[in-house]
Write a structure and sequence with these properties.
The complex is a heterodimer. Helices cover 28% and strands 29% of the residues of chain A. In chain A, the strands form 4 sheets. A 7-stranded parallel beta sheet of chain A has the order 7-11-6-1-4-5-12, sandwiched between helices. A 5-stranded parallel beta sheet of chain A has the order 15-14-16-17-18. In chain A, strands 8-9-10 form a 3-stranded antiparallel beta sheet. Chain B has a single domain, classed as HUPs (Rossmann fold, 3-Layer(aba) Sandwich), CATH 3.40.50.620. In chain B, the strands form 3 sheets. Chain B has a 9-stranded mixed beta sheet with strand order 11-10-9-12-8-1-6-7-13, sandwiched between helices. A two-stranded antiparallel sheet of chain B has the order 2-5. A two-stranded antiparallel ribbon of chain B has the order 3-4. The chains are: A alpha/beta, B alpha/beta. Chains A and B meet through helix 3, helix 4, strand 7, strand 9 and strand 10 of A and helix 3, helix 4, strand 9, strand 10 and strand 11 of B. Strand 18 of chain A pairs parallel with strand 15 of chain B.
Amino acid sequence: MKTLVFLEHHEGALQKDSLGVLSKAVSLGGEVEAVVLGQGIEELAAGAGRFGATRVHVMDDVLLAAPLPQPRVDALETLVGEGGFDTVLFAASVLSADVAAGLAARLGAGLNYDLTDLVVEDGQLVGKRPALGDSVYVDAGWTSEPRLALVRSGTFEPSETGGSPDVQAYESRFQDFSLAATMVEQAHEEAEGPSIEDAEVIVAGGRGLGGPEGFAQVEELAKALGGAVAATRAVVDAGWYPYAAQVGQTGKTVSPKLYVAVGISGAIQHKVGMQSSALIVAINKDPNAPIFEYADFGVVGDLNEIVPKLTELVRQRRAA
Amino acid sequence: MKIAVCVKCVPDSSAHTRIDPATKRLDRSGEAALNAFDVNAVEEALRLREAAGEAEVVVLSLGPERALEPMRKALAMGADRLVLVSDEGAAGSDLVATSRILGAALERESPDLVLFGQQASDADGAVLQAAVADRLQRPLISQVAELRREDGKLRGKRQTEYGYDVIEAPLPAVVAVSDAINEPRYPSLKGIMGAKSKPQETLSLGDLGVAADEAGEAGSRTTVLALGEPPARGDTVKIEDDGSGADKILKFLLEKKAL
């Protein structure tokens, strides 16, 4: 295998999930190289060597400054062609999913996505993908090369092995249509307040709260439990709660000791951000909500009755 | 302006879905519904039409003939016509093959804007729009929570792991919307009655000039090797609240030493 790992970065740091995929690729064996695309990123490339890449390809170009997918497809098409890679791995993100899928169409290559493991069986790469709300596991394979894979966020931990890679700069042409979309305003992380990623207890609210005022009781319960407050994408997009608290596919991935989901249906895009929590408690009025399929303890009922009562019980217990 | 909305019919959320062990494909024989994110995409197309004063909204899908019924919901909401690519030879198409077929169908329509729902409830890839954008060689904006058209350009607010970006693209373009973008309307009785008489076209791969070895399993580059049980998970408990729900949660937390 000759594997290329796409390393994503944001505000001067390599993204943890893509380093996790790099570490996994190294553990699978063969030649493993990485690629970093952007502007002013040479230093980042050198850092990738600590995670086991023997060579890091760098394309430093002003046209790659904004995190837009299509110029990256052009840059990867060039590199995969010149470098003779048979496998290209990505850690799933908004950007990487677009890049991987665009590259699949460009190269006519197979892309397996939402993978939660990668193994080599009988010399062949096999991706493991949960399907149908994680009720079935699919062993996914490829019928041609290069093989493209997108790994679900939070799947592999990076492990530092040390080493300094051979950093190689390269250039690529861009397609006209790839440069047509432009970034007008780029997101910056809000650094205010404690990070929910470090919280041991999280109480999260969803659409079932009925409105922004519903978060008052979520905050009360979080306070009683000594935890942080999180929210689903639906309520963040609706403006009920700040973006920094969002858990799920495009938000944070968390794994607290206790996760209390209040008025959250638990669709897959939320689940991927919190499923590794040690204990999951769910309160929802819909008995068919997917969250009940993976909550350790679920209560079907009116959150407006249950949550204040639970808050009071926890307070009494703590005071005792 | 012409807007094409790509939709997918998925198993109804209340239906128990399974994978057919013989074909290793999703068993789609149960009740079908329009994928929820795609309903948001249809709604956004209708809003763009209303803002523009005039536009044609075409709903496009790849799937079995049974998909026509759920697709009519889009017509009932106000879309003008539908196109279904239905061909036995397309069954089992992966991303590469599906994007090739949809791309061919879209080339035939040559719309100014192609809208997608960000992802499907039965196969959560959120990947098709980017593959189709590359096939069509058009700019892409995905994960869009807010969309505006100004001076012939599109402005989309894209949500990523780091917050919201604002991305601009000229038409023709491909845009994938999230379910936060709007609250879809319910079809009116008049809309439902009128849906059946709107143009509904079914196309084969041959009509699109897609060869047999470019579609279905022959045209795919990924394969399902085996199906297995997921790793064992701890027990899950679900109770109905009879007034003691809060007490029972507390008891559970104490048992698990989570307090």
